[in-house]
Input
Amino acid sequence: MAKKIIICIAFLLLGNTQAANFPRLHEFIADTLMISLPLDSLCAENDSTASVHIIDDRGIPGNQLGIRQITKWKYIPVDQYLLLRRPLSELLYCRLQQEEIADSGTLHIKALQLWSDSKPVLGKGRKLNVYTTYSDPQGNIAGDRIWELTQKAERKQKDAEVVAILLERWIEQQAQAIRQHDFRQNIYPHLYRRQFLSWSNVILMRDGYALDVHLTLDYPADQFRRYVRGSPGMYYRRSSRHESIAVGGKDQHWYFRLNRRWLGRLNVTARMGFNSFDADYFGHVDYWNLLFLNIGAGAVLEYRPVYLKGIFGGLGIYQSFNILPDNINRYEIGLAISLGVLLP
Output
């Protein structure tokens, strides 16, 4: 404990020292993660040319992927710079050379985000989200693409290797999209960033009701036919004989885009919480029945047009399996009415 206090005090003192005395202090405490791709060596060997122009519009140096916070010497939070050995646009251009893709358009890399997503049980891992636009020779935007790739790290696999795999996958898919002119004609109308998404399911049951509330921040997925999301949720159940409150830690949601206006959602979750009972009906309650253990599943059809900003709603069915308490119905089914708000 004393060692931790000494290190923190020293760090604060150094941070308050004049920059003239310590001009390279930020480099001393900063950290760098170098990302190596096979394209690093292949680029120099390929003498062919590609006519596609690639412009990196991310507003940061071309070989920098981003900055994240880590701890150095176990205690001091520092920024870690994720760096490529070659500029991102140059690596993509090398892939176009190898594929001998000849086109006269211009690709703009608008946004690229690397992060770790632990919310979905069956879809967690390192994620790469990219937004690109493609212009014709006259400078008119011909279309855009939203990319979301997930890579789960193998045992003892280094983070730099996982990031390299994600970048290789995106560069390959982006090159094929240029070859096939596979871009969406309806341009994404909002700033590409995480969306604020909150929705509630009001579940009407034979005896009472339940309320299931969710809130999450995720990147837009309007261009995907199907995708997976995870989000924690709060659950409240009220019947004539008892009430329960619980937290869903790992809610899994599968989304299916049916058309430009309708979206299907399947979800499964496990919850844990507490119960209270009507003393006039239950003369005695075993102590374990104070716990609430529940598995729920639902299917909802939502009216949520692509690129929506505002309120959406839906209707579906809900099935609940109650593990505890054991003095209520084990299975419950209800009508789910969904209402939410999406703010890009």
About this structure: The two ends are 44 Å apart (CA to CA). The chain has a mean pLDDT of 87.
